[in-house]
Amino acid sequence: MSTIQILNKETLSERKYPLQYITFEKPDELGEFHNLAKEVYFRPDAAVVLLVDERQKKILLTKQFRLPTFLNGNDSGYLVEACAGLIDEDETPEQTARREASEETGYEIGDLEKIGGAYSSPGGTTEFMHLFIGSYHSETDHQKFGGLKAEGESIELVELGFDEAKQQMMAGAFRDLKTILLLQHFFLNHP
After folding, report:
1. Are residues 58 and 30 in the same domain?
2. Most buried of 48, 60, 79, 147 (most Cβ within 10 A)?
3. Which residues of 126-158 are buried (b: 16+ CB within 10 A; e: fewer)?
């Protein structure tokens, strides 16, 4: 039985997903209990997929506007990142990875390998990210921009050779944690 006791939940917002102010009690390493409080955003889990063309030695990323980064000092608000999206209730993480890659890039994924999972920001959100590497064929005809117009998405496709992607990663050019994690995994396992 857990020694964590939820004392109170106050809903601050339910505009998109619930944001709650939760007070709870938990013991420290000596067994002494302390009352604490945290704001928790109950965001659905997500799937993230790094698209790789092994034959042509290319990686496909997306570039899109992210308001929170703009509000926190990213002058343009744009980030280069791996394809990602929230998992719908009737989907598996694998289905979401395939759907998001198709919506954001126009490419259909071939092989799909799950490499792990992680919490995106465990101090404030419940979101858990399922991490994948998927194959695509860069020679296939596709659009230059992706995204769902109904959701206001205008996504630029960024295709990089393995060497260029690795150099950019090592130079700190990527500012999206999930993308950095997937690139590091890929380059550690595919030297």
Report:
1. no
2. 48
3. bbbbbbbbbebebeeebeebbbeeeeeeebebe
| 35 & 102 share domain | no
Tens digit of pLDDT per residue, the chain (191 long)?
A: 578 999 999 999 999 999 999 999 999 999 899 999 999 999 999 999 999 999 999 999 999 999 999 999 999 999 999 999 999 999 999 999 999 999 999 999 999 999 999 999 999 999 999 999 999 998 876 666 565 556 656 799 999 999 999 999 999 999 999 999 999 999 999 86
Residue 84, exposed/middle/buried by CB under 10 A (0-12, 13-18, 19+)? buried
Give the global pTM.
0.90
Q: How far is CA 64 from the centre of its chain?
A: 13
Same domain for 76 and 150, yes or no, is yes
Query: Of the candidates 31, 85, 48, which has an alpha carbon nearest to the alpha carbon of residue 178?
Result: 48
Are 54 and 94 within one domain? yes
DSSP for 11-63 reads EEE-SSS-EEEEEEEEE-TTS-EEEEEEEEE-PPPEEEEEEEETTTTEEEEEE
